[in-house]
């Protein structure tokens, strides 16, 4: 082989290498984007399911069983927004199967009002993506500006559900932290109905 042929072979390998690297970069980017999209959709679904569960519960422990609250002082104080005695869940709540028996999340049977979910942590298993972490926060908000938290009881409680997972989109191009999925709703107590 002469020098001209060697140069043509080297040029061909260089072009092939550049094309292969470009194809790999595109393929890896597509796979990463696909996983981020799947994790985002799953996290949204998990967060909305959590929010739906919370919203099916009573507004306040003091209004369970038909008791009507006509003023704020008849509601649970903001410093006591948590499960009452006998409702607490130790550790992280998770659904699982043991010996062929399915055990659902404890919160579904133990919690009976919205503020029981304050500072609640749950792990949700997805067979394809693994575990998602779910964190709940419950706060009183102003009746006239529901976006503003308040330090006193009102007839409005904001529920914030935060879902995290390692495959969610990154916070920035050079950041290793992921962006959590956050869903919110407001529970309203209608004392005149």
Rounded to the nearest angstrom, the distance between the terminal CA atoms is 94 Å
Specify Rg, calculated over alpha carbons. Answer: 26 Å
What is the topology, as strand order, of the major beta sheet?
Answer: 1-4-5-6-7
Helix content: 25-40%
Helix/strand order:
HEEEHEEEE
Rounded mean pLDDT score:
88
If you had to describe this structure to a student in words, what would you say it looks like?
The chain is 30% helix and 22% strand. The protein has 193 residues and is an alpha+beta fold. The chain has two helices and seven strands. Strand 2 and strand 3 (101-103) form a beta hairpin. The chain has helices spanning 3-55, 107-110; strands spanning 93-94, 96-98, 101-103, 121-126, 130-140, 156-164, 181-188. A five-stranded mixed β-sheet has the order 1-4-5-6-7, with helices on one face. It has a two-stranded antiparallel sheet with strand order 2-3.
